[in-house]
Amino acid sequence: MAKLYFHYSTMNAGKSTLLLQASHNYRERGMATYLMTARHDDRVGAGRIGSRIGIGAEADTYGPDDDLFARLEGERDRGPLHCAFVDEAQFLTAAQVWQLARAVDDLGVPVMCYGLRVDFQGRLFPGSATLLALADEMREVRTICHCGKKATMVVRQDAEGRVLTEGAQVQIGGNETYVSLCRRHWRAATGAS
Ligand SMILES: [Zn+2]
Prior knowledge:
By secondary structure, this protein is an alpha/beta fold. It has a single domain, classed as 3-Layer(aba) Sandwich (Rossmann fold), CATH 3.40.50. Helices cover 29% and strands 24% of the residues. It has a six-stranded parallel beta sheet, with helices on both faces. Strands 10-9-11 form a three-stranded antiparallel beta sheet. Strands 3-4 form a two-stranded antiparallel ribbon. Helix 3 links the parallel strand 6 and strand 7. The longest helix is centred in the first third of the chain and has 14 residues. The protein is elongated. The mean pLDDT is 93. The site of zinc ion has 7 residues, from helix 5.
């Protein structure tokens, strides 16, 4: 039975590494996988999923207007498709998550999504909110705060390391960096009550 999976975490927990490993496991057994990542993510170049430990794989990209049910249906019609993988799944629109759910139900293709749960202001990304609502299986990818507790939050910092508490949810190509923290240290860093 195909399922819709959501593997979520904060930044730098190794989600892309897990995605690449899972896809590799399928391919090693002779099964066909299809990889997608968000088009505006230029960290590793268009059409590629990379991980901080140095491994990577070619991937198609998706933008907010792409019909992902049609995409997966087309892939399935071209040849065998045993599992689809979606990186940066927080950038999916709500409609696209429904399209992926339909692909699971009507095409019988398992779909594994990997993404951030909340943004630097502690708010759910729309794609993640819909995945939390619709996924058949959810798994938390864990990483830790500097204090050793589980990190569930992320702060955005400018080039000088100052914590930013305002700005667009999605910021690509700037000098900002992100640090994952536990909620207590996130509250201390952002001044949130
Ligand atoms: Zn902490």
